[in-house]
């Protein structure tokens, strides 16, 4: 049995679509990556929604899904380590 775990076998931890990379610590598709990226803006995270009016497009619920899936913004210290690793 081939247990090799390559990115092509990964599914997005947020929405279950095929993931094309590891983003913010979890396998992620490009749309979830860009969503979480944009949610980092000064206006974010989005305001909590009202469950009765919540839809599939709800940004707050999608953001919560990202967080509960394990997505984390890298700390400044981690960013430094990433840069250090790239130098090697
Ligand atoms: Zn996704
Ligand atoms: Zn919602």
From TrEMBL:
Note the PROSITE patterns from the entry.
NUCLEAR_REC_DBD_2
Q: Tell me if Zinc-finger is a UniProt keyword of this record.
A: yes
A Gene Ontology molecular function term for this protein is:
zinc ion binding
Ranges of residues in domain Nuclear receptor: 9-78
Q: A Pfam family for this UniProt protein? A: zf-C4
Q: Does the keyword Transcription regulation apply?
A: yes
Q: Which InterPro entries match?
A: Znf_hrmn_rcpt, Znf_NHR/GATA
Looking up SUPFAM superfamilies in the UniProt record yields: Glucocorticoid receptor-like (DNA-binding domain)
Q: Which key words are in the record?
A: DNA-binding, Metal-binding, Nucleus, Receptor, Transcription, Transcription regulation, Zinc, Zinc-finger
Q: Which Gene3D superfamilies match?
A: Erythroid Transcription Factor GATA-1, subunit A
Q: Which PANTHER family match?
A: NUCLEAR HORMONE RECEPTOR FAMILY-RELATED, NUCLEAR HORMONE RECEPTOR FAMILY-RELATED-RELATED
Q: Which family does it belong to?
A: Belongs to the nuclear hormone receptor family.
Q: What is this protein called?
A: Nuclear receptor domain-containing protein
């Amino acid at each position: 049995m081939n247990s090799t775990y390559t990115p092509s076998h990964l599914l997005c931890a947020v929405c279950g679509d095929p993931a094309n990379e590891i983003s913010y610590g979890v396998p992620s598709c490009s749309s979830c990556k860009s969503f979480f990226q944009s949610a980092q803006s000064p206006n974010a995270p989005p305001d909590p929604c009202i469950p009765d009016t919540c839809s599939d497009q709800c940004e707050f619920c999608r953001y919560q899904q990202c967080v509960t899936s394990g997505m984390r913004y890298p700390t400044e210290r981690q960013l430094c380590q990433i840069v250090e690793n790239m130098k090697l």
